Amino acid sequence: MSPPFPIGEGCSPESVRTYVQSPRNMSGSELQERHMVMNLTNRDGFQEALVKYLIIVILGIVINCINGIIVLTFCKNSVFHGDSRYILYMNLVVNDMIMICVSVTLYVLTYAYPIFNASMCCILIVTASTTHRNTPIILAGMAIERYIAICKPLHHAQVCTVHRTYIIIALTWGVGFVPAVADVIIVLATRPIGFFSKGIFCFPPNLYNTRYHKEKMIVDQVLYLSFVWLTLMYTYFMIFRTARAAKGDTASAKKAQNTILLHGAQLLLCMLSYVTPYLDIVLITFFPIYRSKITFLTYLISNIIPRLLSPLIYSVRDQKFAKNMSQYYSCKVISFKGGLKRRRLKCSSKRVCSLKG
């Protein structure tokens, strides 16, 4: 994952042309490095930067508050604890919450403290990279669970047990974490140990800039995205075929089919983060005076907006989850109001007693 840096409007047209010229003749790694240079060259004016960072921080807080309510609903209702579907969904929600926290922190730090300790930068980027890689794999796992539930309903209870679901979650985090740690190991092997005590611009291409990192990144992306897209296409095709052939519970199959489609839409938005550096270069080539707005919008669309879709896809659309969530929080509101009324009655009775005395 490569969170963008704030860039300003004060750069001259000549310097912009110097940075964005001839993108067609550059390799993928050179484009990413050019994207980093463009972002670090200048910064926004204070007022514009403040508005952008307020938007990002407020959206991050809102998304994490919504996700926090969802996690609380899951924890407070034992009916969800034995269902692999909801356990996988909670894994996605927690993953999104961590990613939002780290992503927004990195985005804010690029303006407030653009140069800071390399070891701290490694920790933040490893966390961001792990959660970023996790998202497509979790979506693929949830699609497989829906495929088993619709196409193999008699085997669902035996295959999708709670124990196996937690094993899948552990494997998902392992698959996301190992490549992120491998990047750090390559840095340890190719750089002096004193590098980790230096101050650097905390940007992935600035930290991971060896030939090994570039080759590893290509292999990672091809393997990850091929697996995820093949899984989604296969599960959607099989669910669609089952829905067409079904005579009984067509509504359930149709809903699962729509869920897989929404998985695909969410994944498309998540995948934009892989092409953001290239997209920024192309757009800035044609619209150099809007470079700051372009990087801000691409970050918003590829990193923040997809995390808003999760509650919409799974919580609001799922009648069982939405019903339990509304019941739980309506009870909380009623009990809160009841407590306030009791306190007011106590206060009023105390006043009456004091007046009589």
Structural commentary:
It is a single chain. With 357 residues, the protein is mostly helical. It has a single domain (13-318), classed as Rhopdopsin 7-helix transmembrane proteins. Helices cover 82% and strands 2% of the residues. It has a two-stranded antiparallel sheet with strand order 1-2. Helix 2 (28-41) crosses helix 10 and helix 5 packs antiparallel against helix 6 (153-159). The chain is globular.
User: Would you give the CATH topology?
Assistant: Rhopdopsin 7-helix transmembrane proteins
CATH class: Mainly Alpha
Strand composition percent: under 5%
Distance between the termini: 71 Å
Q: Residue share in helices?
A: over 70%
Looking at CATH, the homologous superfamily is Rhodopsin 7-helix transmembrane proteins
Lateral arrangement of strands in the main beta sheet: 1-2
Count of helices? 12
Radius of gyration using CA atoms only = 25 Å
User: What coarse outline follows from CA principal-axis ratios?
Assistant: globular
Question: What is the domain tally?
Answer: 1
Strand and helix order? HHHHEHHHEHHHHH
Total strand segments: 2
Outline the low-pLDDT stretches. Answer: 1-30
Keywords: Membrane, Transmembrane, Transmembrane helix
InterPro entries: GPCR1_Superfamily_Member, GPCR_Rhodpsn, GPCR_Rhodpsn_7TM
Protein name: Odorant receptor 131-2-like
Subcellular location: Membrane
Present the secondary structure layout:
Elements lengths: L12 H8 L7 H14 L4 H31 L7 H29 L2 E3 H34 L1 H7 L2 H29 L8 E3 L2 H4 L3 H35 L4 H37 L4 H26 L2 H38 L1
Antiparallel strand pairs: 1-2
